[in-house]
Design goal:
Chain lengths: 215, 295
Amino acid sequence: MQFLTDNFPLLRDAFLTTLGLSLLAGLVALVLGTVLAAMRVSPITPLRGLATFYVETFRNTPLTVVFFFIIFGLPQIDFVVGFFPGAVVAVGMYTAAFVAEALRSGINAVGPGQAEAARAIGLTFGQSLREVVLPQAFRTVVPPLGNVWIAMVKNTSIAAGFATTELAATLPRLANANAGDILLILVAVVVGYMLITVPSAYGIHHVERRVAILR
Amino acid sequence: MTTPVLFDVPGPRARARIRIGTIVGALVVLAIIAFVLVRLGGNGQLEGQRWAILFDPSTNVPQRLLEALLRTLRVALLAMVLATALGLLLAVARLSDHRWLRVPVSAFVEFFRAIPLLVVIFALYFVLPGFGIRLSTYAALTAGLVLYNSAVIAEIVRAGILSVDRGQRDAALAVGMRKSQVMSLVLLPQAVRRMLPILIAQLVVLLKDSSLGFIIGYFELLRQARSLVEYFTPRFGNDYTFQLYVAAALLYIAVNVLLSQLARFVERRTRQNARTAAAAPPVLGAGAVAPGQEA
């Protein structure tokens, strides 16, 4: 217990790093993912191709490889990024591909009649997407987006391998402590992740019921 | 494709606008490509002789990368087999009629699904030694992949079993099969068959996750690339660094794309045979994680 209280500042900072990394990367992923999803359903072929290429590439690339490239690869072509911003970019760009896929399936789930009606009253492509299709798509994708968010929170742990001291990184750092102490740290780390994921799951379920639309 | 739903068959003005959009879009894409190439070229990263070492056996680089790829595949394959086997057992155990079996197995599955895979691997590699169990990086990585993925696979298989029509089970019991026979001869084969595309998608995730070995120092592709860079840098400066990183990343992506293609092929096959399988599409239980969205 003494050990746990001694290392409380480290664990608290690590928890806040994980939380901040999750929120920032989540924001990047949501914005970029929405743009990608819109590109994938647009009538402009090059943009559709670019978005498809992006999604397929990132879905088939391990997040570790994305991290590796941003932290070690980019400096080779004179783009030096800090460890924390690099982690935000890596997790955000990786997750954006999954957000885009979730949104696209949501767009596909919006009834064809909705888009047809929007066109019939004279809305443009942008308007029908903005005012009619996307608001409905966002609602149907609450559960899959929630799963993406929770998977992403767990994925932020990979930043531990790239010099960001977030929750998981406290384990190798304190690995030389004696058995009982390091076990306590492990419990604290697990609890730390659950402090984010369990309320998230609860909140997602709540939102899901609030916004659910009957078809 | 959703295209026909979202917009009318374009008229002349819309066609003109789309044409302009296409040209602008193509220019944007070309600009991005040109920017990357100029950036790379400005650093001399595109010189042929820098890339040549990747293909020149006399430098030992291709052999090293291939060995590293094999080490990656070795971990992934072993973990795939073990995780699938354990996952099937866990799924069946979680559906058991015996409380003493069902409750601990449920706890095991939910626990490992809730925490990041890297934390599992760190626990095996950094925490267990305190209790006198010292695992190699190979063992820790494999065990971590197996524990985590068996929990995920168990949930996939369980959803599959629950989706099999109730009449199948009732009929099997009615002809006098024992509960174990009903499960192994009737329910499991149908469940696995139905869930095959999702199972393979999860195995792709497992393959991707085997790259976590880099973080604990298992000598897979990325670690090998780092070590080659550390070997070359004192001798040739940073001449080959970028190329080696690109090679390691591309090998990873290539293997993953191949396995993903296999998953897609199997999915198409399964869909074609859907008429022979039972009618209702399988539904993942609430909270079940969609495949491909894990780490």
